[in-house]
From TrEMBL:
InterPro entries xrefs: Cell_wall_metabolism_enzyme, Dup_hybrid_motif, LysM, LysM_dom_sf, M23ase_b-sheet_dom
Gene3D superfamilies for the chain: Glucose Permease (Domain IIA), LysM domain
UniProt organism field: Paraburkholderia hiiakae
Annotated protein name in UniProt: Murein hydrolase activator NlpD
PROSITE patterns reported in the protein's UniProt record: LYSM, PROKAR_LIPOPROTEIN
Length: 247
């Protein structure tokens, strides 16, 4: 989806809708000390329920904009092991100690290392073997903000194939801004999304093989013929070109 072609409000609605969908399709349990963002959550709400300060949640997860967390995003809500603020493993946090730690959050030492400040993210995602979903020219890259995937342009009817084996969890045109859309769930909490198709050749619940034709390129809900392709890990968008072979 070319962000420059849609009004900001429509783009936000479309992105939020897809985030909610992929989160629902790939809500695997998270490990101790982490929390998966749900609809209606805020950093303040998560910090309060975890008995942490907002500053700690922001610092541990390297959040540049605390108001921009996404449904399905995994956040660290416990101090990284080995840090001064880490509490004894298995020891419960009392109501008395929580406000004290919150009040002292601003007194923490200098900025944490990257290992301490990052929640499980794209960098920590296990590798997935992808093939290019179609042929053509990449006309827009991934930036994680305005573009949640890549755009590949070619002629109408160009075959679209499954980038990896998996199960179709969505096939339809109910998400504004994405046109005829397919979402495939793969092993390891990965999902791929294929938007603006001219025609769909698979249905929800159907298993597909890597390289299998699943659609044809089109311009549904868009101003030009192209494929908008997204890769998500645990509900969070990551750059698909890092998992695609060089060409």
């Amino acid at each position: 989806m070319r962000g420059s072609m849609l009004a900001p409000g429509i783009r936000r609605i479309a992105c939020a809708a897809l985030v909610a969908l992929v989160a629902a399709c790939g809500s695997a349990p998270v490990g101790p000390g982490f929390y998966r963002v749900e609809r209606g959550d805020t950093v303040y709400k998560i910090a309060r329920s975890s008995r942490q300060s907002v500053q700690n949640i922001v610092r541990w997860n390297n959040l540049s904009n605390p108001d921009a967390i996404e449904v399905g995003q995994v956040l660290r809500v416990e101090p990284p092991a080995g840090t001064a603020s880490a509490r004894t493993s298995g020891a419960p946090r009392s109501a008395a100690t929580a406000p004290r730690e919150s009040a002292n959050a601003s007194d923490s030492s200098s900025a944490p290392s990257s290992a301490e400040s990052s929640a499980p993210s794209a960098a920590a995602a296990p590798s997935i073997s992808l093939v290019w979903p179609t042929s053509g020219q990449v006309i827009r890259g991934f930036d994680g903000r305005n573009s949640k995937g890549i755009d590949i342009a070619n002629a109408a009817g160009t075959p679209i194939v499954a980038a990896a084996p998996g199960t179709v969890v969505y096939a339809g045109n109910g998400l504004r801004g994405y046109g005829n859309l397919l979402i495939i769930k793969h092993n390891g909490d990965y999902l791929t999304a294929y938007a603006h198709n001219q025609a769909l050749f698979v249905k929800e619940g159907q298993s597909v093989a890597q390289g299998q034709k699943i659609a044809e390129m089109g311009s549904s809900d868009n101003d030009r013929v192209m494929l908008h392709f997204e890769l998500r890990y645990q509900g969070r968008s990551i750059d698909p070109t890092r998992q695609l072979p060089a060409r």
